[in-house]
Every structure is written in C-alpha cells, then in structure tokens.
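Re: export button greyed out
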Amino acid sequence: KAGVTQTPRYLIKTRGQQVTLSCSPISGHRSVSWYQQTPGQGLQFLFEYFSETQRNKGNFPGRFSGRQFSNSRSEMNVSTLELGDSALYLCASSLSGSGETQYFGPGTRLLVL
Amino acid sequence: AQSVTQLDSQVPVFEEAPVELRCNYSSSVSVYLFWYVQYPNQGLQLLLKYLSGSTLVKGINGFEAEFNKSQTSFHLRKPSVHISDTAEYFCAVRNTGNQFYFGTGTSLTVIP
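Workaround output, generated via the alternate export path:
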C-alpha cells in the first residue's frame, strides 16, 4: 500500500497570502488529521476530518481551515499568512476510530517571508 | 485537556549503551499511549503503542516501553542503541475523543 502523501513538499509564500496544502491518506483510511510542527511549540493538533466532517479541532485561529473529500483526500488552507505560520505541516491518516494508529506523511514545509 | 511531558529535551548516549527516554502524561481518564520517531526531514513513524493489556509493550527496532498507571508514565527503553537510532522521539497521548497530544520531543544522539 502506498503511504500518506503530501503535496507540495516545500512552499514559500509572503505575508498576507493564502496557501492550500493537500494530503492523500492511505487507501481505505477515512480519518485525516493535520498538525503544525515548529521548533518552539513542537507538534500541535490542528483538526481531524472523518467522512468529510470535521470531528475534532485544536486551538488555532479561524485562518486555518480544512476540508475532506469523498475519497478521503484532505486539504488544509491558511489565509492571511503570518511569519509565525512558517512550520512543517504534517498530515496523518488512520482507519477510523480511537486507538487507531496514525500514519504520518513526510510533511509540507512552509516558509512565510 | 491532556498534557504530555518529555523530561529530557536532549539525550546523548554512547553506541551499544542502554537508553531510557522519559514520558509522563496527565489524565484522569483512559488514554492510549504512543511513541513515534522522526528522522531528519521525514514524517513521524510509529515505534509502539499501548492500548490495553500487558503494560510492557514491544515495538520496532528493539524498543520497548512500560505503561505505569500509578505514575502516569510511559518511558521508552532500548538495551543497546545503534548509530541509526539518532533521531527525534515523540511521546503522544490519544484520548477517547480522538485527539492526539504530543510531547515536545527528545533528541537522541548516539555517539560512536
């Protein structure tokens, strides 16, 4: 089985712009979670989608949003980018429920100038 | 909300020596516990997990961890480390609401 894939792998944007990141889960996985990883804050949970519905949400501002499609692929959007949004954005997929192992993609490294 | 504390941000250890990476969590309810490893420029890879049952969990690459409910700890151990074990290690807790909480990571450096 192919693993979790994320595109693009690297991205450079300027302040005020918006960005869309994409995640394709492992085939058959219906849950997709997004995380932001920074040296200072570590890994922070953004949100989780399951069957096209947002099931959980972390403590991030409304500039961060996401969605999931019927094929379980997910996109994350960040509007009005700030310098502090520079980070590695990780996507993880799992089959469905609590206790399931999450499988992580390689991440998208976003640099905001 | 849960919190996860990894007490050591950096752990240097000589090759073939044993290592223990510490993890404590705060929770009054049942949780699932995980250890992940992250190699440079890569995503996270699952090392092992505790869901229920035996408190000693064995994972990949010779790692194991012990769940201690009374001390709310889930320390990771390996009896003999290899150069290739140099990486960042993350402890994580998943609650019954399906939210993951990660520790800030421990950077393990194996010295030849």
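Chain A has no helices and eleven strands. The button fix ships in the next patch.
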